Amino acid sequence: MSEPNDPEPVAPLRDASTVLLVRDGAAGPEVFLQRRVTGMDFAAGMTVFPGGGVDPSDADAEIAWAGPGPDWWAERFGTTGPRAQALICAAVRETFEECGVLLAGPTAETVVSDTTEYRDARHALESRETSLAAFLAETGLVLRADLLRPWANWVTPVIERRRYDTRFFVAVLPAGQRADGATSEAELVHWRTPADALARWRAGQDVLLPPTWSQLVAIERYPDTAAVLAAQPVIEPIEPLVVHPGGRTVLEFPDHERYFADVPDPMELRGSAR
């Protein structure tokens, strides 16, 4: 019988945002994935969605904003308005930094169709030489919060040395834009259907942490991106529980039996939050 263990957390929680960037393909929705470089401190070598930790500058209140306001997002994610705003800004910033996709436009009804002219700003954001608020102000762009949808919330288990309270979002690739691998954090990027991504994981070609696996399983249920955007998933924090069945240390989370059935060594894939 599995016995839960509630050790003291080894690291404080940090807010993070992750974006499932989707597009329609011949076989259904495709998701943008990136394999993190092996030298990363967190989730090294894992195949993940674009995202990362919230930066202090993401809480800047002076920003042009279109779509549902921070209070709307706060209600969906069970948090405060200021924290929700920082999470949205982090989602937009990280997506631009990591794959060059910019969820912003000249007006509240338009979106940038070509981001190459903002290449220098992208590098400045990644190196923290500027903030998202400053970049948008300088370029006269409006953050398009309405292009995002709330999707899930995973919390890194207490046994990890880096812990994140990660909110997952969904966004459709804007027309005219392309996602790339021009980031120091990824060694390989690709668009794949969830079925293909999961098949590669089962074959040992890619490594998926439980949160990534869970979102791919969820997206696989939808026939196209319109259905994905129309979905209204119930969002409750999921924090994998550390248990010790038969003296082994494994994690329990929704559908963990299905996940671990295809993982040879559960301790190789302890449940991070991306």
TrEMBL record:
Residues 12-215 form the Nudix hydrolase domain. Keywords: Hydrolase, Magnesium, Manganese, Metal-binding. Its cofactor is Mn(2+); Mg(2+). GO terms for molecular function: hydrolase activity. The keyword Manganese applies. Gene3D superfamilies: Nucleoside Triphosphate Pyrophosphohydrolase. This is NUDIX hydrolase. It comes from Nocardia jiangsuensis. The lineage of its organism: Bacteria, Bacillati, Actinomycetota, Actinomycetes, Mycobacteriales.
